[in-house]
Design brief:
With 96 residues, the chain is α+β, with helices and mostly antiparallel strands. It is 23% helix and 29% strand. The chain is built from two helices and five strands; from the N terminus they run αββββαβ. Strands 1-2-5 form a three-stranded antiparallel beta sheet, with no helix packed on it.
Length: 96
């Protein structure tokens, strides 16, 4: 018998995908190279050109309930999860 627990259900997954797709995603950049994925950081973002973390836009309200749920799952206080990274890999990314 499996003891696996889903943190989100299928309906919530569809909502998250829609929200991520409607977010202001930008191509991932790393030391002059542009990756084949789109990203958005909240709370903090690592700036590869200057080599340090920078403050980013706050975690959006629509993402906070999922952050809180992930914190409970990990036995953490939600306030310690201070960064969220959205990543979308389109079909052209070549990841299988």
């Amino acid at each position: 018998m499996s003891t696996e627990v889903d943190i989100i259900d299928a309906a919530e997954e569809r909502v998250l995908i829609s929200r991520i797709d409607s977010s202001d995603l930008t191509p991932f950049r790393f030391q002059g190279w542009t990756g084949k994925r789109l990203t958005a950081s909240f709370g903090w973002s690592y700036h590869f050109e200057v080599g340090r973390p920078l403050e980013a836009q706050p975690i959006p309200d629509w993402l906070r309930p999922f952050r809180d749920r992930a914190a409970r799952f990990a036995n953490l206080e939600p306030a310690v999860l201070i960064q969220a990274l959205l990543i979308r890999y389109d079909s052209s990314a070549g990841i299988r």
